[in-house]
Structure formats: structure tokens, C-alpha cells
Design a protein that fits this description.
CATH superfamily of the largest domain: ABC transporter type 1, transmembrane domain
Number of helices: 20
Radius of gyration: 37 Å
Helix content: 55-70%
Number of domains: 2
Strand order of the largest sheet: 6-7-8-3-9-10
CATH class of the largest domain: Mainly Alpha
CATH topology of the largest domain: ABC transporter transmembrane region fold
Number of strands: 10
Strand content: 5-15%
Shape: elongated
Bound molecules: adenosine-5'-triphosphate, magnesium ion
CATH architecture of the largest domain: Up-down Bundle
Order of helices and strands: HHHHHHHHHHHEEEHEEHEHHHHEHEEEHH
């Protein structure tokens, strides 16, 4: 229950609905008892069993609450019979029964009506919170997790919470109230029979909840398995080209087939047990009723301490108490299920963001002097990816990072933008450690082009104007022109408003890249961080991208990660990296003359 209780906090803003729910549930429980009790006088008229009472009874003359009620009903009906005849009395009682049942159901509906707003409000708030957390958590949190798992948490786990919350309210409010009121009615009729019923109820309840326990463990397994299969679908959709290109369909089908097979088995066992619950409980219910019939029948026939009509009324009340008793035992496993889901949800919500803004972090508005990287060391996992790395970028300068694949170039971009925190050393902007600058203002100073173009399934306009929703058309076109992208965008069927497909699937590699460059251009930040992927492009589009890069870094401070060395010939400083360390640095000409690693790299590239 621990996790479930925590999630309960999400219901707080909607407590007034909970109060209304409780209020109407009280009325519901009251009227449901009254409705069943109202059968008794009707049956008495039909059986014509009782001595008619013609004088209005009083509490004293009847000698007890129960007697008073039954005398009064007797008097009321007989008066009716006297005045208008038996059939009319019967009709009156029928109408009363209808009215009582109508009210019972009306209040039942109202109770549900108000709780719906609470349930759905909670659902929305939890989902929003998870999403907010997903956008807030550091990138490292997601590298090992499966996306489908998050999708399943934000959809089905939240749904489970919603249902179990409702079940919990029923368990703690509605059903106990119904039981209390019904019980009062039953005791009023015969305490002896009532005690008898209560010997039998827990036995059947115990059997039902035993089934419930097994249900719970199966449903956790089902939840985990469906998270797995969602991940597979997600992964397959985003890698269709590779799957088809490598003829790996069979393999993926098999792995998906295995997953749905497992889910199938779990769901079968779950459903079989669920289906067993209902006939089981009906059967047990009938057993209980029959035993009461036997015991109570003796009271009617032999002891004559009970009249037949009242006994039938008692039986209906017993039925009225069986359903809530069943529901309570079912609710207890629904809540256990909710607890498991709550745990999965809290796992996301309660994860502390380790890349946080300090309370006294400064809001850096402008960029004045430069960026310094001082003796940093960094490891994603165990192995150090950067070792004692130092570098300086003065304002207005362009620094290029080159080096073989895996040498740690993109890692520098990840650290400067604070997607990860360095473990040793410091990165400073204008002499201020970036850990003391708010993430928002730090990232506001930087325009970022990542190695793999990340685009959204949206229009060109919205992809480019990500940093500024209200960017004017001129501004967007201007950015596209600088990024060398306007030419192809203007030829798209709907121009700026053309949808570029999932992850920009309708565009070529170079076009995608130029769009992501345009996005950084539009942001117009003083620092540009470019992780270019020109190696993936043909000469023609490489030239286009190259010009785009040159255009955008003009008058800016930039860190350019280059694969094509021709791109960075004019850089103010070229830093050559090897396995997370700097092996040499200087201007293009200097490095060429030195005849070291850089020269080798250049020679290799001119060769192809
Ligand atoms: N998220 C991560 N978790 C663990 N290790 C990582 C992660 N990202 C990168 N690495 C490792 O860190 C090292 C440096 O990676 P990085 O991406 O910085 O290389 P790079 O110089 O940009 O290479 P390339 O030229 O191929 O883009 C690599 O050995 C890589 O395996
Ligand atoms: Mg890289």
C-alpha cells in the first residue's frame, strides 16, 4: 500500500469531489436498504399473514423500534386496504418500491458522477507529471531504458491507478456503508439469523480472496510483458529500413511473436481465474443463501418466531450484503495491483534530477569573454572517455575538434551543454562554472546542431522555429537561407507548412541536416556548437552544408566538431584528440607543418 498511498496525493486537489461522492454514497446505501425493506409490507399484503392493525401505532404501544416500524407499515397498508381495496394498496406499495429503487440508483449515479471528475483529473495530473519528469530528467537516465516501458507506464499503469483508486473508494466508503445499513436492517429483523449469516460470509470471502492473490501476481507479469512488446513495436517502427534492408523481418517477428505468446499465456491464466471468480462467488452465494433458507425456514415453520414475508425480506437483504462483501474482497487485490503500478510510476516521478540548478544559480544573460574547459575528466560508465582535458575558446573564435571516431568529441558537446556533468575539473563560461549557471540560461546562450539530425513529425516551420514559436515568416526564411535550405524548402508542395514526416523521413540526409542548422541559426545564440555529420553526405550536399556552417558561425563563438577537415581549415584553433586526450593543437598550417596526427588525418582524407 505504500506506493499507492503516495500516489493518492494526486487526488488532493479534487477532494471536494470525494466528499460529494461520500455524501451520495451514504444516501445510496440508506436507500438501498430501505428499498429492499419495502418489499416486506408488500409480501405481507399478498400473504395476508398479519393481524390487521387499524389504530395508528405509537412507540409505546409497539414496544420497540422494530415493532413500531412493522406496526406502522401494517397500519398504513390496512388503512389503504380499508379505504380503497387490496389492489390499490398493492399499487401504492409498488409505487413506493419503484420510488425507493429510483432514488437508490439516482444517488448511486451521482456518487459515480462526481468521482469521475476526480478520477480523470488525477489521471491527467499524473500523466502530466510523468511527462514533465521525462523532459526534466538528464539524458543519462534514458540511455539504458526502453521507450516502450515509459509509454506503458504513462498509459496503462496510470489507468490501473485510476481503477484501483475507484475500487479503493468503494472498498472504504460505499461498500462498508451499504453493509452497515443493510446489517442494521437485518439485525432489526432477526439478530439470530444475522449472526448465522456472519459465520458463513467470511468463509466464502476467504475463498474469493485466495483467487485474488494469484490474480495480482499474474497482472504484474502482464504489465511487464506489455511494456516489453510496446518497446518492440516502437523500436521496429523506427528501424523499419534496417530491418527490411538486412532481411531481419523473421528475427523481429519471432521476437515479437515470443513476446505476444508469453503475454497470451499470462492473460489466459489471468482471464481464466477472473472468469472463475464470478461463478465461484455466485455458487458460494447460493450456498450461503440456501443454508440461511434452511435455518430461517425452521424459524418460520417450526419456531414461528418469524413470518414468511419478513423472512423473504431478510433474504433480499442478505443478497444486498453479499455483493458489497464480494466487492471488498475483490477490491483488495485491485488495490494490490494499483500498488504495483504506483511503484512503477513513482520510480519515474521520484527520480531526483542529478543535474539540477543550485538555489543560488545565476541567470546568465550575455556572453562576454569565452569558454574555458579546465582539466576535466569524464566517464559515462567506468571507463574514462575524457582525461585531464583542457581547452579555451575566446569570444568570437572558432575552435574545431578533430580526431578519430570515439575519441570523445561529441562528449565535449554533451558536457558544455550540461547534458552530463563532469566528474573532475570544471567548464566555465566567462569564468563562471556552468554548474552555477541556470541550465535554462546556459542553454539559451548556445545554438546546438547534433550529430544525428533530430527532427519532429511536423511542418518545416515548426521544426525550424522550435526556440521561438512566434518567429516571423521572414525570420524563418532568413534562417533557412543562411542554412542553405531555402532553395529546397521553397520547392516543397506547401513550402514552410509541408510536413516532413516522422523524424524528417520525407527529406534527404543533407536536407535534414540543413534544417537542423536552420533551427540553430534561428535561435541566434552567441555560442554555436556544431557536431557535423558531413561524412554521411555526398560531395554536392557536403558543400551545401559546409557553406551553411560557415554562414552560421560568422560573428559567433563556435565549437565545431568536424569530420571533413576541409570544413575547418579556417578555424582559429584546431584541437586534435585521441582517446579523450589532446595530442596537438594549433592552426591548420602549423599542424600540417608539424607532421603529426593532424597531417596524417588530412592525408588520409585527401586520398579518398
Ligand atoms: N551514452 C553513453 N554511454 C556510455 N558510453 C558512451 C556514451 N556515449 C558515448 N560513449 C562512449 O564514449 C566514447 C566517446 O564517444 P563520443 O561520442 O564522444 O565520440 P566521438 O569523438 O564523437 O566519435 P564520432 O566521431 O564517431 O562521433 C566512445 O568510446 C563511446 O563508446
Ligand atoms: Mg560524435
Amino acid at each position: 500500500m505504500k506506493f499507492f498511498k503516495k500516489v493518492m496525493a494526486f487526488a488532493k486537489p479534487y477532494q471536494h469531489f470525494a466528499f460529494l461522492n461520500i455524501l451520495f454514497n451514504i444516501l445510496y446505501a440508506l436507500f438501498s436498504t430501505l428499498a429492499f425493506l419495502s418489499f416486506i409490507p408488500m409480501l405481507q399484503v399478498l400473504f395476508q399473514q398479519q393481524e390487521p392493525i387499524f389504530e395508528k401505532p405509537s412507540m409505546e404501544s409497539s414496544g420497540g423500534l422494530k415493532e413500531y416500524f412493522s406496526d406502522y407499515a401494517n397500519f398504513f397498508i390496512n388503512q389503504r386496504v380499508e379505504e380503497k381495496g387490496q389492489i390499490s394498496a398493492l399499487i401504492t406499495i409498488c409505487i413506493m418500491v419503484i420510488v425507493l429503487f429510483f432514488l437508490k440508483n439516482l444517488f448511486g449515479y451521482l456518487a459515480k458522477y462526481f468521482i469521475a471528475s476526480l478520477q480523470n483529473g488525477m489521471l491527467r495530473d499524473i500523466r502530466y507529471k510523468i511527462y514533465e519528469k521525462i523532459t526534466e530528467l538528464p539524458i543519462s537516465f534514458f540511455t539504458e531504458k526502453r521507450k516502450g516501458d515509459f509509454i506503458s507506464r504513462i498509459t496503462s499503469d496510470v489507468q490501473v491507478i485510476q481503477t484501483s483508486f475507484l475500487k479503493m473508494l468503494e472498498m472504504f466508503v460505499k461498500e462498508p456503508l451499504t453493509i452497515i445499513f443493510t446489517l442494521a436492517g437485518m439485525i432489526l429483523i432477526s439478530w439470530k439469523l444475522t449472526i448465522f449469516v456472519f459465520v458463513f460470509l467470511p468463509i466464502s470471502g476467504g475463498i474469493i480472496s485466495a483467487i485474488g492473490k494469484k490474480l495480482k501476481s499474474d497482472s504484474t507479469k502482464a504489465q511487464e510483458e506489455s511494456a516489453h512488446f510496446l518497446s518492440l513495436v516502437e523500436e521496429t517502427l523506427s528501424s523499419l529500413k534496417i530491418i527490411k534492408g538486412f532481411n531481419a523481418e523473421e528475427r523481429f517477428r519471432k521476437s515479437f511473436g515470443d513476446s505476444v505468446d508469453r503475454l497470451n499465456r499470462i492473460l489466459n491464466s489471468l482471464l481464466h481465474r477472473q472468469q472463475l471468480a464470478s461463478p465461484m462467488s455466485e455458487f458460494l452465494g447460493v450456498v450461503v443463501i440456501t443454508v440461511i433458507l434452511w435455518f430461517g425456514g425452521r424459524m418460520v415453520l417450526i419456531d414461528e418466531t418469524l413470518d414468511a414475508a419478513t423472512f423473504i425480506g431478510f433474504l433480499t437483504l442478505t443478497y444486498n450484503i453479499l455483493t458489497p462483501a464480494k466487492n471488498i474482497s475483490k477490491a483488495s487485490y485491485s488495490i494490490r495491483e494499483g500498488n504495483a503500478s504506483a511503484e512503477r510510476i513513482l520510480e519515474i516521478i521520484e527520480t531526483e534530477t542529478n543535474i539540477r540548478d543550485e538555489a543560488d544559480a545565476i541567470d546568465k544573460k550575455s556572453f562576454e569573454n569565452g569558454i574555458t574547459i579546465e582539466n576535466i575528466s569524464f566517464a559515462y560508465e567506468e571507463e574514462k572517455v575524457l582525461k585531464n582535458f583542457s581547452m579555451q575558446v575566446k569570444k568570437g573564435q572558432s575552435v574545431a575538434l578533430v580526431g578519430q571516431s570515439g575519441s570523445g568529441k561529441s562528449t565535449i558537446a554533451n558536457l558544455v551543454t550540461r547534458f552530463y556533468d563532469v566528474q573532475e575539473g570544471a567548464i566555465k563560461v566567462d569564468g563562471e562554472n556552468i554548474k552555477n549557471i541556470t541550465k535554462k540560461s546556459l542553454r539559451n546562450l548556445m545554438g546546438l546542431v547534433t550529430q544525428d539530425s533530430i527532427l519532429f513529425n511536423d511542418t518545416v516551420r515548426n521544426n525550424v522555429a522550435l526556440s521561438d514559436e512566434n518567429a516571423s515568416e521572414e525570420k524563418i526564411i532568413e534562417a533557412l537561407k543562411i542554412a542553405n535550405a531555402w532553395e529546397f524548402v521553397s520547392e516543397l508542395p506547401q513550402g514552410l507548412d509541408t510536413n516532413i514526416g516522422d523524424a524528417g523521413g520525407k527529406l534527404s540526409g543533407g536536407q535534414k541536416q540543413r534544417l537542423s542548422i536552420a533551427r540553430a541559426v534561428l535561435k541566434d545564440s552567441p555560442i554555436m556548437i556544431l557536431d557535423e555529420a558531413t561524412s554521411a553526405l555526398d560531395t554536392e550536399s557536403e558543400k551545401l552544408v559546409q557553406t551553411a556552417l560557415e554562414n552560421m558561425t560568422k560573428n559567433k563563438t563556435s565549437i565545431v566538431i568536424a569530420h571533413r577537415l576541409s570544413t575547418i581549415k579556417n578555424a582559429d584553433n584546431i584541437v586534435v584528440m585521441h582517446r579523450g586526450e589532446i595530442v596537438e593543437q594549433g592552426k591548420h598550417e602549423e599542424l600540417l607543418q608539424k607532421g603529426g596526427t593532424y597531417r596524417k588525418l588530412v592525408e588520409m582524407q585527401s586520398f579518398d
